[in-house]
Amino acid sequence: MLADRHSMAAWSGRTDPEADSARWHQRIQALAEDSQPGLALLGFACDEGVRRNQGRVGAAAAPQSVRKALANLAWHRQAPAYDAGDVTCEDADLEAAQARLAHNVCALLDAGHLPLVIGGGHEVAFGSWSGLAEHLSGQAAPRMAAPRIGIINFDAHFDLRDPTHVHSSGTPFAQIAEQCAARGWPFRYACLGVSRASNTRALFARAAELNVLVREDHEIRESTLEYIGAELEAFAAECDALYLTLDIDVLPACEAPGVSAPAARGVRLEVLEPLLERLKASGKLRLADLAELNPDYDIDNRTAKVAARLIHLLSL
Ligand SMILES: N=CN[C@@H](CCC(=O)O)C(=O)O
Ligand SMILES: [Mn+2]
Ligand SMILES: [Mn+2]
Q1: Does residue 45 lie in a domain region?
Q2: Which tens digit of pLDDT belongs to each residue from 101-120?
Q3: Residue 42 is part of a domain; what is its CATH number?
Q4: What ligand is nearest to the CA atom of residue 245?
Q5: Which of 10, 212, 257, 283 could link 207 by a cystine bridge, Cβ 3.0 to 4.6 Å?
């Protein structure tokens, strides 16, 4: 086990007497060296990036709160699911935590698992992507000279802040763009649910420079669902592998109050879910993560339940 800590304590809940009534807590297993390929949940218990980004901290506690919410959901999977433990951030050393996350994600991919990382602040994205990059550059994956990794971020924010001075929850995709440039890899980034009011002109300009596929929050609604779904499929078709990153603050604050920076408008769950279904259907999803859930501001575990439902959807 590579992760910094591991406990199955969160996995408890209701047990029904009827046959075929299993819930996640009854089926999820602790990851072992010889585990058959399956879905691997890995926590990134870190909000140092949020602190550096002047945000309200608390997201480090999200992995445990999501596990508790997921524990009681009904189990409909055929393939196994594992808990791979948590990577933690020690002594505010975000860079070291991201490097350990990357090694863990790479090891899971090498072993044939689909890693689903539960952040943490959105600084999780740099560690997640680095793990996929390490995997695609290594021996375990089919050789690709310059893999076309498509990043699909559902987020009210671009998280493309200038990383020159500080690495934070606001910089991961700019850090990834730098990494791609250094490796001669294409940078393919789609950011959906962006709030114009919450992102400066400088960030919109950087997104344009980097050729980011941008859809603002107000553009994603039931009447445009077909168009945006087709646009995402076309984006996916031009990629070798997809990395999906879900910033929970893409949802309206009434649906997801427990986040570091709540969205005044957001994209509703009923619109988000069909888009995720279409992405799954592409068959190219290699990695997913969830970011910015902050249990300190949650109401009756509403946000944790939404996060658990999204994991449940992705796991089917
Ligand atoms: N990952 C967070 N990103 C946002 C936070 C905005 C805020 O704190 O209001 C950002 O940096 O833009
Ligand atoms: Mn974000
Ligand atoms: Mn955000």
Answers
A1: yes
A2: 999 999 999 999 999 999 99
A3: 3.40.800.10
A4: 2
A5: 212
- Establish if 198 belongs to a structural domain: yes
Rama region for 280: left / alpha / beta (φ>0; ψ in -120 to 50; rest): alpha
The number of folded domains in the chain is 1
* pLDDT tens for each residue of 205-257: 999 999 999 999 999 999 999 999 999 999 999 999 999 999 999 999 999 99
Q: How far apart are the CA of 73 and the centre of ligand 1, in A?
A: 31
- In angstroms, the CA 205 to CA 316 distance is 38
Give the predicted TM-score (pTM) of the model.
0.98
Protein residue whose Cα sits closest to atom 10 of ligand 1: 170
CB 252 within 8 A of CB 265: yes
Q: How far is the CA of 172 from the centre of ligand 2 (A)?
A: 9
Distance, in Å, from the CA atom of 115 to the CA atom of 314, rounded to the nearest integer, reads 11
Binding residues for Mn(2+): 122, 155, 157, 159, 247, 249
Whether 71 is covered by a domain: the verdict is yes
Angle between helices 124-137 and 94-110 (to 10 degrees): 40
Nearest protein CA to atom 9 of ligand 1, as residue: 261
The finding on whether 128 has its CB within 6 A of some atom of ligand 1 is: no
- Residue 177 domain-assigned? yes
Instruction: Give the residue carrying structure tokens 């926590």.
Output: 43
Domain of residue 191, residue span = 24-315
Residue 123 is which amino acid? E
